[in-house]
TrEMBL record:
The keyword DNA-binding does not apply. Keywords: Membrane, Transmembrane, Transmembrane helix. Coiled coil: none annotated. The keyword Iron-sulfur does not apply. The lineage of its organism: Bacteria, Bacillati, Actinomycetota, Actinomycetes, Micromonosporales. This is Uncharacterized protein. The chain crosses the membrane at residues 25-50, 62-80, 164-187, 219-238, 245-262, 268-289, 301-319, 365-385, 397-417, 429-448, 455-474.
Length: 648
């Protein structure tokens, strides 16, 4: 995309003035004062937004985005400014990384809140208590096979004396900083102008996972940081000029690939896929330029890197976690079925922002953001095409791979229209946006440089770019995360982030204190989150092969399926948890037990009071705990076959 020579960024800016020695310090002081004031004002606005949401007042959305943009706009300005020095630009990016972690930190500073956070926090906590890796997890059954995050958090907590949650925050903040810096360094492997690297980091931060999803206590939050630096190592290996240097960089890449694979399955698959794209692009370039020996060597190194990563992933998923494939397959399979039904005019779709409390301008921004990304990608393709013959061969091949990676973002957005595909689409954007960021960044700098030569257009171009940045920041996050995940508020039935009510926490504490840890129990999704984390139990919410939810679905007087009772007994389940709110309210996220449950979701409660109180009369269930909404029963399978107690 540029006529510069190969090699990583040097950090030296072209055309920088060599004025008095005091000028860099003056710039640094001005930048520090500007961003310090912006950070203070932005943080105050974020706190105000959360307080208004917690108290049920309006305006939280406007306050939140005002707080984010108050800091983002000046940070972007200083990051891509021509006269900003290397150290100043580095400081700005680090500061930007810290500030962009603030929304999630303020959202839940003291403990887990999101669905997967309960699982990962509980897994890390169990390692601290028991010292054992690869243990089954009751909330997310596959994460026990990927202990990288949990081992890191548990080790840090043990070594420092911090709580598990405090240790997790340190790991997550460091990973967030490494993501921002890693994107800048990755772009710097292709184009030596450090402004392009800084622009790439800012563009990447606009993706829907950056503020909330990849800042949560989840294995992707750590793994994606390692993935970006693994790609840096891969490009370094391809560019190396000696066999020894290539071997060292490939070895580092493979070490990072092992770390990623031991941490998160999807990130490991994406690493292999991206490296394969890079190898294919190098192969295509090598075929066109048969006389370029350097590119031929780079192609062999690229394929060695991709093959090594593929072997690591294949061995892990075959030997350590053979169930990963069966865990992931249903999500994509059902999404494709639903999407084909939608395309054929049938059912299977979902209505975006149905009953959402997000303001109209957030919803509009969510629809416009992909179009804005497409516009910038189109411009990036045009720029790449014009400069392709002047670019160094490895840069041309790598930028081609990044274009292909970025292009994957757009078909993935269509999956958001299906219930099963929506989650997968959101999770793919964090990876495909890496390609968008790397290839769009040169376009942004080219537009700024062109506008700079024309005084009349410099300000309008800058304002237009900042406005696009703001629109995509708002729109992507509105599309990627529900308001209940982003903002606090009163307890809401059927919301992962508001499941930890005092009543459920009290029930979890009672069960742990009176019955011990690791008891197998059947529960709904939301009670199961708390009982499986704070309660340290092993809940199940049911599945197609183990339809535990049929206990709740059975009508009074109707026999429970014998096969289900056999499963419960043979697998030594001890307790049944019933939340009677299932007969009174509709879950906020339209799920009672699990994503593909065979339960109607027609806007009214799927259960009756009689269905949930029938357990009081069954002889093989003994009520042990009874709260305003939560009841806990002990299974007494030896009493199966006895007549029911009283009438239902």
């Amino acid at each position: 995309m540029t006529a510069t020579t190969a090699g990583p960024a040097t950090g030296r800016l072209p055309g920088r003035r060599t004025g008095s020695a005091r000028r860099p310090w003056i710039e640094a002081a001005g930048c520090a004062l500007t961003l310090a004031a912006a950070a203070a004002a932005g943080a105050a606005a974020l706190v105000t937004a959360y307080r208004r949401a917690e108290w049920g007042e309006s305006g939280q959305f406007a306050w939140f985005w005002a707080g984010m943009l108050i800091f983002t706009v000046p940070a972007a300005f200083w990051a891509v400014r021509r006269t900003s020095g290397t150290h100043l630009r580095l400081a700005v990016l680090v500061g930007y990384a810290f500030f962009t972690y603030l929304p999630k930190l303020l959202r839940n500073p003291t403990g887990p809140l999101y669905h997967d956070e309960y699982a990962h926090w509980g897994q890390s906590h169990d390692i601290v208590l028991d010292g054992l890796l690869f243990q089954q997890n009751a909330i997310v059954r596959v994460i026990g096979d990927y202990p990288g995050l949990h081992a890191t958090v548990a080790s840090l907590a043990t070594l420092t004396g911090l709580t598990v949650w405090q240790a997790a925050l340190l790991v997550l903040v460091l990973a967030h900083v490494l993501v921002v810096l890693g994107v800048a360094v990755l772009a710097g492997q292709l184009w030596p102008d450090p402004r392009i690297g800084a622009a790439a980091a800012i563009v990447y931060s606009l993706n829907s996972s950056f503020l909330f999803f990849d800042t949560q206590l989840g294995y992707e939050s750590l793994a994606i940081a390692v993935l970006i630096w693994a790609l840096v190592a891969g490009l370094r290996a391809i560019r190396a000029t000696t066999a020894g240097a290539r071997a060292r960089w490939v070895a580092l890449l493979l070490v990072l690939a092992v770390a990623i694979t031991a941490t998160h399955h999807l990130t490991a698959l994406w690493l292999t896929g991206i490296l394969s794209l890079l190898a294919l692009a190098c192969t295509a370039g090598s075929i066109r330029s048969r006389s370029d020996r350097g590119l031929a060597v780079a192609t062999r190194v690229a394929w060695a890197s991709a093959s090594g990563s593929a072997v690591v992933v294949a061995v892990w998923m075959t030997v350590v976690s053979p169930r990963t494939g069966t865990y992931l397959e249903p999500y994509l399979g059902r999404a494709l079925d639903q999407f084909s039904g939608l395309a054929g005019g049938g059912s299977g779709g979902r209505t975006l922002f149905s009953q959402s409390i997000a303001p109209w301008w957030e919803q509009k921004a969510a629809f416009v953001a992909p179009g804005c990304a497409l516009l910038f990608m189109t411009g990036a393709v045009i720029l790449w095409w014009r400069r392709r013959h002047h670019a160094e061969p490895v840069t041309r091949a790598a930028s081609t791979a990044m274009l292909l990676l970025g292009a994957m973002y757009f078909p993935a957005t269509l999956l958001i229209l299906t219930p099963s595909g929506a989650e997968g689409a959101r999770r793919s954007w964090a990876f495909s946006y890496l390609g968008i960021a790397v290839v769009v960044a040169p376009l942004i700098i080219a537009l700024l440089d062109r506008a700079r030569r024309r005084i009349a257009t410099s300000v309008p171009v800058g304002v237009a770019l900042l406005a696009s940045c703001a629109l995509m920041l708002v729109g992507n996050n509105a599309a990627g995360m529900n308001p209940s995940y982003r903002f606090p508020g009163p307890p809401v039935f059927g919301s992962d982030t508001r499941a930890a009510t005092p009543e459920v926490l009290a029930a979890a504490a009672w069960l742990r204190e009176t019955q011990g840890r690791e008891a197998r129990l059947v529960a709904d999704r939301y009670s199961g989150l708390i009982l499986g984390s704070y309660g340290e139990q092993e809940p199940t919410t049911g599945s197609a092969t183990f339809p535990a939810y049929d206990l709740y679905r059975a009508q009074p007087g109707e026999p429970i399926p014998a096969a289900l009772l056999h499963q419960l007994r043979s697998w030594r389940f001890e307790f049944l948890v019933v939340d009677r709110r299932m007969a009174e309210q509709v879950p906020d996220i339209k799920i009672y037990f699990e994503t593909n449950e065979p339960i109607p979701h027609d806007g009214k409660p799927a259960f009756t009071r009689a269905q949930l109180t029938k357990f009081d009369h069954l002889p093989w269930l003994i009520k042990m705990y009874d709260g305003p909404h939560i009841a806990i029963y002990r299974f007494d399978f030896d009493s199966l076959g006895r007549p029911a107690r009283g009438s239902v």
